[in-house]
Specification:
- The complex is a heterodimer of chains A (about 160) and B (about 290).
- Chain A has a five-stranded mixed β-sheet, sandwiched between helices.
- Chain A is of the alpha+beta class and about 160 residues long.
- Helices cover about 35% and strands about 15% of the residues of chain A.
- Chain A has five helices and five strands.
- The radius of gyration of chain A is 16 Å and the shape is globular.
- Chain A folds into two domains: about 80 residues, Beta-grasp domain (Ubiquitin-like (UB roll), Roll), CATH 3.10.20.30; about 70 residues, [2Fe-2S]-binding domain (DNA polymerase, domain 1).
- Chain B contains twelve helices and 14 strands.
- Chain B folds into three domains: about 45 residues, Uridine Diphospho-n-acetylenolpyruvylglucosamine Reductase, domain 2 (2-Layer Sandwich), CATH 3.30.43; about 110 residues, Uridine Diphospho-n-acetylenolpyruvylglucosamine Reductase, domain 3 (2-Layer Sandwich), CATH 3.30.465.10; about 110 residues, CO dehydrogenase flavoprotein, C-terminal domain (Enolase-like, domain 1).
- Chain B has about 290 residues and is of the alpha+beta class.
- Classes of the chains: A alpha+beta (about 160), B alpha+beta (about 290).
- At the A-B interface, strand 4 of A face helix 2 and helix 6 of B.
- Bound molecules: flavin-adenine dinucleotide and FE2/S2 (inorganic) cluster (2 copies).
- Flavin-adenine dinucleotide binds next to strand 2, helix 2, helix 7, helix 8 and strand 10 of chain B.
Chain lengths: ~160, ~290
């Protein structure tokens, strides 16, 4: 059997460029976990339903299990590890998850952190209903969602506090 | 599971993509939101993928006097957010809001969902309801346009040839004095609909009904399109009895049972949603008729 051809792929992950040689069928989720070795991105269903693998592609949330890494060549990716403050402190959403006890086993958490981080960029002051809608595409089998909704609202508050002069 | 190996091709023009498709017998990769799950589950194992994500000239939304034309690389989210497209044809946004979750809409293309021809997909039914068309390009046949009425052949089956690329779709504007509605019921927000109904109702200058049609999803092998214009014909917009329309719809659909709903429940939903969607579209049309 001839070996699978490899493709040169450059991914900038959390501001750090990575030059990779990958088979075309490597899912972006697997490239992040196995090749870039950032295991914060979790893989649950691997067909787009659970949301655990959500990362930001040029700032927009996408399912990393529904994209081949070759298609993302040249793109800038943000994973849950990158949802920090520039000084390395916990990001507003991460801090809010801690404050509100918005995780139990933590398997779903990376997908929530990325999704909510992007959402608050465009919706800085969500209502509770909007917070529920924002996380509608992410499944959590532990928490019952109440504390996650609270964390969305708390994260918006933290962001406002941090940007206040 | 992981996708099987495939040859990866990255064209930069439509002609190059058509040539690659013909040469390899592969499949087009657009947003991947339907194709990649099928490959990961090993329900599909195409020998080659022609990734059109870097092809030029297919990224635009063009809002004209007669229609909104959507290029093959327009993501659901971009069309949903496009203000001129909404002004020209509010039904597009009304239906797109029900297509999966926002995260899926950031990658999935509207043209891809139409080509995918899922009988539970919203945008195939919207294209059918508006009498739209798909523009296709292949090496063998050149460019052709396929009417929505001929395009949807069966579940996940369209009239597009295996060597053809859909470069865009055309959503005609409904006539002046028209209103629209999209309603659906799903078990959870973002899931495929148990039943969905799109309606367009057209009023004359006296606000009497002169046209009405519905297209339904998840109740047949393809979107089910029913012209119900004569049911409301000549009734004033605030005095239409749409009950005849639900009978026509009931006769046209062939819902099946699955773990989410029985066939009878789908039939019930189709009737209720048809009545509501027609009423909503009528109410939406009234203020659009210049007094
Ligand atoms: C969790 C989940 C929920 C979803 N829920 C819904 C829903 O409620 N309603 C709904 O309508 N959809 C839903 N979808 C599907 C989504 O709308 C997809 O975006 C869409 O069906 C396919 O578009 P794509 O660009 O991703 O196409 P791809 O996945 O890239 O391709 C799909 C198929 O179409 C072909 N194709 C795509 N573009 C072209 C082209 N330009 N020319 C020729 N062939 C082409 C491909 O070869 C492939 O066979 C859901 C998907 C997921 C993962
Ligand atoms: S692992 Fe990607 S959505 Fe579940
Ligand atoms: S915390 Fe366990 S799945 Fe969400």
């Amino acid at each position: 059997m001839t070996p699978e051809p490899l493709h040169e792929v450059t991914l900038t992950v959390n501001h750090v460029p990575h030059q990779l040689r990958l088979p075309a069928r490597r899912l972006l989720s697997d490239a992040l976990r196995h090749d870039v070795r950032l295991t914060g991105t979790h893989v649950g269903c691997e067909h787009g339903v659970c949301g655990a693998c959500t990362v930001l592609l040029d700032g927009q949330p996408i399912r990393s299990c529904l994209m081949f890494a070759v298609t993302a060549d040249g793109a800038s990716i943000t994973t849950t590890e990158g949802c920090l403050e520039p000084d390395g402190e916990l990001g507003a959403v991460q801090e809010a998850f801690h404050d509100c006890h918005a995780l139990q086993c933590g398997f779903c958490t990376p997908g929530f952190i990325t999704t909510i981080t992007a959402y608050l960029e465009t919706h800085p002051n969500p209502s509770e209903q909007q917070a529920r809608e924002a996380i509608g595409g992410n499944l959590c089998r532990c928490t019952g969602y109440q504390n996650i909704v609270a964390a969305v609202l708390r994260a918006a508050e933290i962001k406002r506090e941090r940007s206040a002069p | 599971m992981k996708p099987a190996p495939f040859a990866y091709l990255l064209p930069s023009t439509v002609d190059e993509a058509a040539e690659m498709l013909a040469a390899t017998g592969g499949k087009v990769l657009a947003g991947g939101q339907s194709l990649i799950p099928l490959m990961s589950m090993r329900l599909a194992a195409p020998p080659a993928l022609v990734d059109i994500n870097r092809v030029g000239g297919i990224t635009d939304i063009e809002v004209g006097d007669d229609a909104v034309r959507v290029g093959a690389l327009v993501r659901h989210a971009a069309l949903e957010a496009h203000a001129p497209a909404y002004d020209a044809n509010p039904l597009l946004r009304r239906a797109l809001r029900h297509v999966a979750h926002a995260t899926i809409r950031n990658r999935g293309t509207t043209v891809g969902s139409i080509v995918h021809a899922d009988p539970a997909g919203e945008m195939p039914a919207v294209l059918r309801l508006l009498g739209g068309s798909v523009e296709a390009v292949s090496q063998a046949r050149g460019r052709r346009s396929i009417d929505a009425a001929d395009f949807f052949v069966g579940p996940l089956e369209s009239a597009l040839g295996e060597d053809e690329i859909a470069v865009g779709v055309v959503f005609p504007r409904p006539p002046a004095g028209s209103g629209s509605s999209w309603l659906e019921i799903s078990r959870r927000r973002g899931d495929y609909a148990l039943v969905g109904v799109g309606a367009v109702v057209t009023l004359d200058s006296d606000r009497n009904v002169i046209g009405a049609a519905v297209s339904l999803i998840s109740v047949g092998a393809t979107p089910v399109h029913v012209d119900v214009g004569h049911v409301g014909a000549d009734s004033a917009y605030d005095d239409v009895d749409w009950s005849g329309a639900t009978e026509l719809v009931d006769a046209a659909i062939s819902p099946e049972a699955d773990i989410h709903a029985t066939a009878d429940y789908r039939r019930h939903l189709a009737q209720v949603l048809t009545r509501r969607a027609l009423a909503e579209a009528t109410a939406d049309a009234a203020p659009r008729v210049a007094a």
